[in-house]
């Protein structure tokens, strides 16, 4: 089977769950297309769960709870039933261990909004079987790229691979006042600052102008970009982009269409929530793929 597309989503603030946006519309559209193509399940790396030392963990809690989502009415998420995919979780664990990772099952992990916000938006009717892989707290770009390349073969079986983090995501440099005072997360009292615009453009260029191993090199190299530390005060919202580049950056992926910026939503003045699709659904590929 031809490989499924891969997605890098910027989940933004918690209010992206409760408020309408073009990003939310794009997530829903991606979910609808995934269901139309009968995906087997979802494999995700988020931005809020990391394992220490050299470990990786896979979520294997059969009935996980949800951590609360600030600034969002509970009716938007409390009744959504999560579907941990334990059989696929065991397969992913074995694949990671065979590739040399110190990977372990975590049967206590409670899911966090970085992953279930996206699942609710993509699949509001029903959560598909989902496997979550932790980050590693050393935040090595090449390590996370390799995690993505290790699970990449599952794309050929109909699994959807998603990284959820942020294109520009520095909580220390956001303008929080309109959200805290008025619940207005989309307020733009001033334009985004130059460093945010610069880094956002570089993220778009890397994802949309590179295919195959060049994509892996471009995305992992972004962590050395002059504005990287301005755009990401911490690394936790970027290494899932490296994971995505591993899952979408094989030589075989050179034959796919270039990555596409599907939607983008600015929040809190300086946080840029860019949404990328890498590859395309079988049957919808165009002549551009071979250009
Ligand atoms: Fe987050």
Automatic annotation (TrEMBL):
It comes from the Eukaryota. CDD domains: 45_DOPA_Dioxygenase (cd07363). Residues 7-251 form the Extradiol ring-cleavage dioxygenase class III enzyme subunit B domain. One of its GO terms (molecular function) is ferrous iron binding. InterPro entries: Extradiol_dOase_DODA (IPR014436), Xdiol_dOase_suB (IPR004183). Keywords: Metal-binding, Oxidoreductase, Zinc. Its cofactor is Zn(2+). SUPFAM superfamilies: LigB-like. PANTHER family: 4,5-DOPA DIOXYGENASE EXTRADIOL-LIKE PROTEIN, AROMATIC RING-OPENING DIOXYGENASE FAMILY PROTEIN (AFU_ORTHOLOGUE AFUA_7G00640). Belongs to the DODA-type extradiol aromatic ring-opening dioxygenase family. This is Extradiol ring-cleavage dioxygenase class III enzyme subunit B domain-containing protein. It comes from Salinomyces thailandicus.
């Amino acid at each position: 089977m031809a490989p499924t597309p891969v997605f890098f989503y910027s989940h933004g603030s918690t209010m992206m769950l409760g408020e309408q946006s073009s990003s939310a519309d794009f997530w829903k559209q991606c979910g609808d297309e995934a269901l139309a193509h009968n995906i087997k399940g979802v494999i995700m790396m988020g931005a809020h769960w990391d394992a220490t030392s050299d470990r990786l963990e896979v979520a294997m809690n059969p009935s996980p709870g949800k951590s609360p989502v600030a600034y969002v009415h509970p009716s938007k998420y409390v009744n959504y039933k999560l579907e941990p995919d334990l059989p696929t979780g065991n397969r992913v664990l074995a694949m990671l261990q065979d590739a040399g990772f110190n990977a372990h099952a975590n049967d206590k992990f409670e899911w966090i909004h970085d992953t279930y916000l996206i699942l609710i938006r993509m699949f509001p009717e029903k959560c598909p079987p989902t496997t979550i892989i932790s980050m590693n707290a050393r935040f090595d770009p090449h390590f996370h790229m390799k995690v993505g390349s290790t699970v990449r073969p599952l794309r050929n079986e109909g699994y959807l691979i998603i990284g959820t983090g942020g294109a520009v995501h520095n909580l220390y440099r956001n303008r929080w006042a309109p959200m805290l005072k008025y619940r207005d997360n989309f307020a733009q009292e001033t334009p985004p600052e130059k460093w945010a615009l610069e880094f956002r453009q570089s993220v778009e260029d890397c994802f949309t102008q590179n295919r195959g191993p060049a994509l892996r090199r471009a995305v992992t190299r972004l962590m050395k970009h002059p504005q990287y530390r301005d755009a990401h005060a911490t690394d936790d919202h970027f290494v899932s982009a490296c994971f995505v580049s591993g899952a979408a950056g094989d030589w075989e992926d050179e034959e796919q269409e270039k990555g596409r910026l599907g939607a983008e939503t600015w929040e809190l003045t300086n946080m840029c929530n860019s949404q990328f699709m890498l590859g395309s659904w079988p049957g919808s590929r165009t002549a551009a793929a071979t250009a």
